[in-house]
Q: What sequence folds into this?
């Protein structure tokens, strides 16, 4: 998508030139060119937004399907061909949630769903939600929801 930003900049530079006195003196049909440039910029923006939506959906779908696995920032960045730092900023910008918090939310929601809908043990649910240590899961669950996993079972 960097090339799109480069094109965007060049188009904006062209508009600035057309609005300058040099552009006026050149006798170019400014309004026609400005309209063409504006239309091109809109199309590029639309494609860029579409690509971003595809990448975010690819990552979030992967996380929802593989929440029980070790999901790292680096592996998700690689999935969409970005470096980890850029991906972290990218993910936060387009989801309004940082990557780590998103993964934790998905895991907590799945765990709560399993607690409510199945008779599985809390230890089993913890492992299936991607937590290697059931005690850590219980601590995180209580902090996340404000009540214990075992209290869900007592209802």
A:
């Amino acid at each position: 998508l960097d090339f799109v930003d480069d094109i965007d900049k060049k188009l904006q530079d062209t508009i600035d030139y057309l609005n300058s006195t040099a552009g006026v003196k050149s006798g170019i049909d400014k309004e026609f060119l400005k309209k063409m440039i504006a239309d091109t910029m809109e199309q590029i923006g639309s494609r860029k937004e579409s690509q971003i939506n595809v990448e975010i959906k690819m990552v979030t779908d992967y996380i929802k399907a593989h929440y029980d696995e070790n999901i790292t920032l680096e592996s998700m960045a690689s999935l969409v061909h970005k470096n980890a730092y850029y991906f972290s900023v990218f993910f936060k910008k387009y989801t309004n949630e940082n990557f780590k918090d998103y993964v934790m939310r998905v895991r907590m929601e799945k765990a709560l769903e399993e607690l409510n809908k199945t008779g599985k043990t809390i230890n089993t649910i913890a492992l299936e939600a991607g937590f290697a240590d059931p005690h850590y899961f219980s601590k995180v669950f209580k902090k996340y929801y404000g009540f214990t996993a075992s209290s869900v079972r007592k209802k």
About this structure: Residues 30-65 form the longest helix (36 residues). The mean pLDDT is 84. The chain has nine helices and no strands.
